[in-house]
Amino acid sequence: MKRQNILNWDDYFMSLAHLSALRSKDPSTQVGACIVDTDNHVVSIGYNGLPNGCSDDEFPWVREGANLDTKYPYVVHAELNAILNSKRSVKGCTIYVSLFPCNECAKAIIQSGIKKIVYECDKYSHTDAVIASKKMLISSNIQLLKLDTTIKLSVEVV
To answer: Model confidence at 157, in pLDDT bands (50, 70, 90)?
Structure first.
């Protein structure tokens, strides 16, 4: 008899987003994203980090202080990294992301043609960036799905 207790697709792709987040060098927030097409094929992945060519040791990783002394003007978010890393169109795809997208990422998601966002955490829902994001995403008919991630993995090694 085949094994019954397997990950469903949503949990599988969110797990890939979490795995991608482990590449982030951000000491306070690690975010991962996974873009999937309608055939459940991974199209791209990304995590929050500096642009290619920018040294992780030369730019700040702090959250507070003068804007240019913080990480915010330099870090590329996981969603945008996944879109930019894709070798093919992401039109019609779903993006799995561990943290709800900000307004800047929402613009990129909308412009790229992604049709669904599956997210896990929405801890910044009260901020202007996320309020604006949701307003644009809803206006653009992007489907939003909050995933309950109480994943219980049990793997038997033979």
So the answer is: very low
Query: Using CA atoms, how far apart are residues 145 and 4, in angstroms rounded to an integer?
Result: 25
Active-site annotation holder among 58, 64, 79, 120: 79
User: Which residues have CB under 8 Å from 63's CB, separation 6+?
Assistant: 28, 70, 71, 72
pLDDT digits over 42-73, tens only?
999 999 999 999 999 999 999 999 999 999 99
Residue 120: active-site member: no
